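Slide 14.
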Amino acid sequence: MTLAGYVAVALAGGLGMYFGIGGLLEWRYYRRRADAARWKLQPTRWPSPRARRREIALGAANMTLASVASGVLAHHIATGGASSVYWDDRHGVAFSIATALVYFVATDGLLYGAHRLLHRRALFRWIHRVHHRWTSPTAFTAAAMHPLELALYQGIMIAPLFFWPIHAAGLAAVLVYHNAIALLDHSGVDLGAVVPWQPPPRFHDDHHVHFHVNYGQTLGVWDRLFGTWRRAGRVYGEHVFGGRGAALGPEAAPPPRIDYRRRRRAGAAPGAEPRDAEELG
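Slide 15: predicted structure.
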């Protein structure tokens, strides 16, 4: 297959997933808006038409750039370019599964660290704030970010491929999983958790509501480990940096973490909310 062919396949896959999952959620929930109090995580808040157009345009542009880069990389690997990706069964099934799992966990941890780094004051102001314009996200918000942020995340996923052995099928599975979860986590829909290691969409929706908390990209273990899982009784917001919130008073012990396994009651308020996305500038 030619370079153009690899790029075309990558574009079809990337944009197909972006508009396929995003479009399905759009049709199923947002177009109808029926009984929003039962399914929407922020039922009283809806992105303006202008904000929707901006997120889709930016997200589609970023997905196009990322897909082109992925297509070029795939062509490089397939034509014998230097990498640690392999296609055959030289290492056996157990090794291939194990290395794919390590790649998944390691890159997810690095994505958590990069995301948390982008919440430092200067980087948040100049780069990551673009993504946080959408405080009531939809699936299309997943790729609506500053191009430098996109490059950082993609670099984290690509760099190990030059020294960590991984089967092409395992690599594809990890990339599809990461991207699908990103779309679902930004959906704004109270879908609940499908697997025990994966927080439900409300976990990341709270990140957009409360800003500097719940940094995990896919797994919840990093926020638990480093103390950035949102806790009850603490104040969070655009200007409360650090990921741990501001204590309301003296604490004998850290207050309990929010239990995201419990579905939000229909009509229940989502909590204190920051300013609308259109006001963030």
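Speaker note: The longest strand covers residues 85-86.
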